[in-house]
Amino acid sequence: MNKPDEFKIKSTDIRNIAIIIVVFTAALWVFTLMQPITTTEGVVDKFGRDGPVLIEVYADWCKYCQNMKPIIERLQSEHPEINVKLINADENNIKMSLPRLIIVRMDGTYTDNRLVAK
Fold this sequence. Notes:
4 strands; 2 domains
């Protein structure tokens, strides 16, 4: 009654299962990369949890971002000890209000400042 041949796992079965796992893992990784960043927490996690750092999220089409550019450049030139990261929202799939300044402290906590025109 017992048919052991039916329950044996062949090496081709193991290879096929491994291929499926690799393909699924790669697809999941690509899907995760395609997800837009929509929160300050997401920006900080991706670009600078190791404070102190000033992160400016900008876009080339944003006129307020362009107005901030000379100020940030001056800050960088006058205070090279400050770690400044300029993050292009379009190139990094970031979907949030712009411009945005994020100050990350030494302990990894942060302050988020969305700049708006009045």
